[in-house]
Amino acid sequence: LKYNGYSTAMFGKNHEIPAWETGPAGNQTLWPSEVGFDKFYGFFGGETDQFQPVLIDGNTRIKTPRKKNYHFTADMTDQTIKWLNLQHSYNADQPFFAYYAPGAAHAPHQAPREWIDKFKGKFSMGWDKLRQESFERQKKLGIIPQDTVLPPMPDFVPRWDSLSSDEKR
């Protein structure tokens, strides 16, 4: 893309780099900034601590920003928006490619406190009931045909009522 005039950036997780290249002795030849991206802001691997990630900006390890309620997803979103605004201010007509890959979908699943509080109790009824309600709502909205039958739950998924209170947390 770069050779076709695009400005390019990668934000978030990158697990395309061999482990031996990510350490201090690594030669960085496969880092995003060395394989075609003008900008990289994120971390190596598929998962990281969302509150204190080991961050890379370009080819430099940086300290995790020390701000109250820091969460990497919000940080990388801010960094992406900042980069997009910068691209637009330099040359609004230049095409760009921004690769946005949040790591929050991988373990460890660490939601910001405000989201935990917002959804507290929302799913307490358990996945059996939630699954049934979601299925009925899809029928009501016309997403699935009215005569659709909810398939049986896979055998490897335990019934919600069989779990201990600790497992339900």
Write the SSE topology:
Layout: E1 7-14, H1 19-22, E2 39-44, E3 55-57, E4 60-62, H2 72-90, E5 96-101, H3 113-118, H4 127-140, H5 165-168
Explain briefly what this protein structure is.
Keywords: Hydrolase, Transferase. With 169 residues, this protein is α/β, with parallel strands linked by helices. The chain has helices at residues 19-22, 72-90, 113-118, 127-140, 165-168; strands at 7-14, 39-44, 55-57, 60-62, 96-101.
Uncertain runs: none
Anisotropy-based shape: extended
Order of strands side by side in the largest beta sheet?
4-3-2-1-5
Number of helices: 5
Organism: Vibrio alginolyticus
Pfam families: Sulfatase
GO molecular function: hydrolase activity; transferase activity
Keywords: Hydrolase, Transferase
Q: Would you write up a description of this structure?
A:
Keywords: Hydrolase, Transferase. InterPro entries: Alkaline_phosphatase_core_sf, Sulfatase, Sulfatase_N. With about 170 residues, this protein is of the alpha/beta class. It has 2 domains: about 1-115, no CATH class; about 120-169, no CATH class. About 30% of the residues lie in helices and about 15% in strands. The chain is built from 5 helices and 5 strands. The chain has helices at about 20, 70-90, 115-120, 125-140, 165-169, and strands at about 5-15, 40-45, 55, 60, 95-100. It has a 5-stranded mixed sheet with strand order 4-3-2-1-5, with helices on one face. Helix 1 links the parallel strand 1 (about 5-15) and strand 2 (about 40-45). It is extended and about 55 Å long. The mean pLDDT is about 95.
